[in-house]
């Protein structure tokens, strides 16, 4: 399994940072440093030999000189503290470097383990998705197989009807072509008729245009004088209409007067004729009949008088009945109620359709 590139870049950046923090160039061995060290060592050896040749074995060292250098080329053990210190620092730096390398290695191992865990989770997720896709594909294949089977069955059922449909289509096509030819012929005839009507309309239009030209010429030349004459005639016509209205109103007034006088004369003639006929009829009648007719006339008058009195009495009766009803409803006309008012309270009776309101008086105390 290939390692992810971003983690390598991270480790490289960490290594570069750690290498920048700790500079080991001063402890690295180069050719110039080795040569200088060899020359220094040779010089120290020569100087030590010269010094040792000057010191006798019988000489004793004072305790006060311990811890201090005899000279710049002294090699006593108490003057080697700086060398030991340098060696300890070098060992500490090497240990620290190793610790840093170990930490970097641990970080890389941890990153690799995280990557492995992520790839494992991804593998499990992809495996589950593949199983789901496999199940879905299998279900789709089954559904497709069922649909295909249904379609094949439908095809087997409909295959026999294809020939019938084709024959029906050919028959319909032939009938449609026949209808098309018939319609085309009819439209051609109608088109010819329309062309004839169009020619007739164009001829009439030409005649109307000629008439219009004549009218325009008349309007431009003869119409102004004719218009003046027409306006004069209209004025005369209005004057004549006013005179005619006045004459007509006068004639109507005369007719009304004559008609009124004629109607009066007619009424007078009718009355005279009626009186003459009546007198002649009465004179020709027997005396008993005259008395009977006179009595009938008197009775007729009396009947009319009695009818009038009857209507008057009816109106009086209605008025009296209304007054009687008012008196019955008036509490002052109730004798018992006037004598014993405490037995007849004035409060109205409670009927079933009335609302009951409890209005019980309560005692209210004055505020303290």
Q: Can you describe what's shown?
A:
By secondary structure, this protein is an all-alpha fold. The chain has six helices and no strands. Helix 1 (5-21) crosses helix 3 (81-221). It is extended and about 185 Å long. The model is unreliable at 1-7 and 44-69 (pLDDT under 50). InterPro entries: DUF4618.
Properties at a glance:
79% helix, extended, DUF4618, coiled coil
Per-chain topology:
Elements: H1 5-21, H2 31-54, H3 81-221, H4 223-284, H5 287-329, H6 335-339
Keywords: Coiled coil
Pfam families: DUF4618
Rg over alpha carbons: 76 Å
Helix and strand element order: HHHHHH
Structural class: mainly alpha
Largest sheet entry? none
Helix content: over 70%
End-to-end distance: 101 Å
Show unreliable segments. 1-7, 44-69
| Quantity of strands, as a count | 0
**Percentage of β-strand residues:** under 5%
């Amino acid at each position: 399994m290939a390692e992810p590139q971003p983690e390598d870049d991270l480790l490289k950046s960490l290594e570069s940072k750690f290498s920048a923090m700790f500079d080991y160039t001063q402890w690295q061995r180069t050719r110039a440093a080795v040569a200088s060290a060899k020359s220094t060592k040779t010089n120290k050896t020569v100087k030590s030999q010269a010094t040792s040749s000057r010191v006798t074995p019988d000489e004793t060292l004072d305790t006060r000189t311990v811890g201090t250098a005899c000279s710049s080329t002294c090699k006593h053990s108490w003057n080697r503290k700086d060398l030991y210190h340098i060696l300890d620092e070098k060992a500490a730096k090497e240990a620290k470097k190793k610790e840093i390398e170990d930490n970097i290695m641990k970080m890389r191992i941890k990153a690799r383990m995280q990557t492995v865990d992520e790839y494992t989770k991804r593998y499990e997720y992809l495996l589950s998705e593949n199983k789901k896709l496999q199940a879905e594909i299998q279900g789709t294949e089954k559904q497709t197989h069922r649909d295909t089977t249904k379609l094949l069955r439908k095809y087997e059922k409909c295959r026999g009807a294809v020939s019938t449909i084709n024959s029906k289509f050919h028959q319909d096509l032939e009938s449609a072509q026949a209808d098309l030819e018939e319609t085309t012929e009819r439209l051609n005839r109608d088109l010819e008729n329309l062309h004839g009507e169009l020619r007739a309309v164009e001829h009439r239009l030409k005649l109307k245009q000629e008439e219009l030209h004549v009218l325009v010429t008349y309007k431009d030349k003869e119409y102004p004088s004719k218009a003046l004459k027409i306006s004069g005639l209209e004025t005369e016509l209005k004057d004549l209409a006013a005179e005619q209205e006045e004459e007509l109103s006068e004639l109507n007034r005369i007719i009304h007067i004559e008609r009124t006088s004629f109607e009066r004369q007619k009424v007078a003639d009718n009355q005279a004729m009626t009186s003459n006929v009546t007198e002649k009829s009465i004179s020709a009648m027997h005396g008993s009949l005259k008395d009977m007719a006179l009595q009938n006339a008197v009775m007729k008058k009396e009947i009319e008088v009695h009818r009038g009195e009857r209507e008057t009495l009816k109106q009086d009766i209605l008025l009296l009945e209304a007054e009687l009803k008012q008196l019955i409803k008036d509490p002052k006309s109730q004798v018992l109620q006037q004598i014993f008012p405490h037995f007849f309270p004035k409060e109205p009776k409670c009927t079933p359709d009335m609302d009951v309101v409890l209005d019980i008086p309560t005692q209210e105390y004055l505020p303290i």
